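fyi for ur records
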Amino acid sequence: MERLTRIRNVILASIGGILVVSLVVYGVYFHRKANHYKEVLNNQYDRAFYDLLDSVNNAETYLLKAVVTGTDEMQTLMLEEAGNAASQAESCLALLPVDQHTLADVSAFLVQLKDISRVWDETLINGGSLTQEQYAMLEELYGYAQDLNGAVHTVWNDFNKKGNWEDLQLFHDNQHLSEPFQDYPELIYDGPFSEHMKTTSEVRLKGDEVSKEEASEYVKKLFEFYTPKVEFNGETENHGLAVYSFTVTFGEDSAHVARADVTKIGGKLCSMIMHRDSGEATLTPEQAVLAGESYLNALGYVDMESSYYIVQDGYVTANYAYVDNGVICYPDMVKVKISLDNGEVTGFEAMSYLLNHRERDLEHGKMSLEKCSESLSSHVKLLENREAVIPNDFGGEEHVYEYICAYNGRRVLIYKDVDTGAETEVLIIVEDDNGILTI
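which gave:
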């Protein structure tokens, strides 16, 4: 009996030893694996910042060339290159694991530089020239590009001295990037009235307050196809709207990252951007726009209608405005980025909608749609018309009639007040194979 007890003790000790060794091996294995994926992410962030340095430098260089050249042909080429560089810089900035509210002004500058370069490039290609006002704006854009280039290099030097990707406080505390753009004038670049969308002084979003844990679960569901890991980055405020910010990583076989902001009130998705390479296009832009509309419906953004879109680098970026009983409300706008390979949404921004959306009391105007159309210029041909709500320069709104007209092969938007018939705004629609925007 004593012999059996000794044997049992030896066996138990052996099993215990095996378990201890197994746990040690298991821990070492997953520790190395975790370090491997951390290294992959760090390399991706390093590469993104190197590319950001290069693209911002190129944007400054090409803008300077566009300023000093004496020919429309060379200016066309330089503006195209400047726009491409701005687009690349925007993509690199989005890849960095930084709260995007911190760099919102920088991102806005890059997007606007990209789009306005494209519009001016189109003008020059069609035989036109930049006006004195546009040339002055070009010089101003060059000045901002200079400031941004210097700021990016300053941040990079600071980061190399005392920062790492696990301690992002350097970016939150560093004001070099945002300082040059505190007084930067906004431009129309992604649909009519976009420069006025966020000027409201009142946050109209209603609902119960959600916790950061509830918001985290919501973000997980957004990316549930990828088995996501969600990390809380903190609570921020933008235009008076409080949001929870999260970074998302996807599974063991991907170094891709995403970021998402969820409103503290109501738990609504405010913004999201996910980086992944776009494969060969299988959808038309129109199909991608429909996919974006389905995504909005699933998130609870209903009664939305697409208005304008741009196609670039295998993606469609589309604007959707809220429609209230047939009246299109441009202040309630959402922007969605959709991949043309499979219709997946990789970008989302709803700040304008969240700040402006509400139930409006839209009474019939004192003048009819038909009566107002009688004062349209005799030089244009009326194509379509409808009621609309547009923002004004003072943070308010106007109830108008929207007339889509044609002139000399171009389409224009003419807006008239529903009560007085006064013309309040005129916009030109720019269309090509890459999409639709207004100037």
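Residues 186-201 have pLDDT under 50 and may be disordered. thats all i got for now
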